[in-house]
Write a structure and sequence with these properties.
DUF1707_SHOCT-like; 5-stranded parallel sheet; single chain; elongated; 204 residues; 2 domains
Length: 204
């Protein structure tokens, strides 16, 4: 019996939510590495979340370097990523007069410092890749706003964030298994902090 004879039954098996999410994570990592542009990422993510079988998921990452494909025995895969380390250079976003932001496909560092002096800092994690279980986000006091837009499954912890004279609104809960947590500390001063899903609208 050939290798293809063994592989064919697997390709017809139904994929689960964990399998689809695992492939989506590889696609985000690949976009962060420059292997996919944002249009390709959007198109493949849409197909990944709509996939019904392993064959459909296999096709989405066939041209990308992955360590393992999901299977009925091991439904988790990750794209090769650098090992987590706390010695990486921090990302410092200092919004003096102009707004500062990160969005699209970007790799999240282990440490982020946000200082909304007289403008806003916006961190959109929707298409970001993160090789760390925990990311330290320190907020320096200011009069602007810090806004986090979070993908499904990621967590935000604001227990160590001092709201001072400002406001803190965290609409994100604990991280799902295998997903990163953004641990927020520091003080908002007279500014505001918001962590929310991508399509969140408050009622008047």
């Amino acid at each position: 019996m050939s290798e293809n004879d063994h592989a064919s039954p697997r390709k017809t098996l139904r994929a689960g939510d964990n399998d689809r999410e695992a492939v989506a994570e590889v696609l985000r990592q690949s976009a962060g590495d420059g292997r996919l542009d944002l249009d390709e990422l959007d198109e493949r993510l849409e197909r990944a979340y709509a996939a019904k079988t392993y064959a459909e998921l296999d096709e989405l990452v066939a041209d990308l370097p992955v360590t393992a494909m999901p299977s009925e025995h091991a439904p988790v895969l990750r794209s090769p990523a650098r090992k987590p380390g706390r010695d990486d250079k921090p990302l410092i976003l200092r919004a003096t007069l102009d707004n500062q932001s990160r969005s699209g496909a970007w790799e999240v560092p282990a440490v982020i410092e946000a200082e909304p002096l007289f403008a806003n800092v916006k961190l959109n994690f929707m298409y970001a890749s993160c090789p760390f279980d925990v990311v330290d986000l320190t907020i320096r006091p200011g009069s602007g706003a810090v806004v986090l837009i979070m993908p499904e499954g990621w967590g935000v912890d604001t227990e160590e964030l001092n709201k001072s004279w400002g406001t803190v609104r965290n609409k994100i809960g604990q991280a799902a298994a295998g997903k990163p947590t953004i641990e927020v500390r520091g003080s908002v001063g007279m500014s505001s902090f918001v962590a929310r899903p991508p399509y969140f609208y408050e009622k008047d």
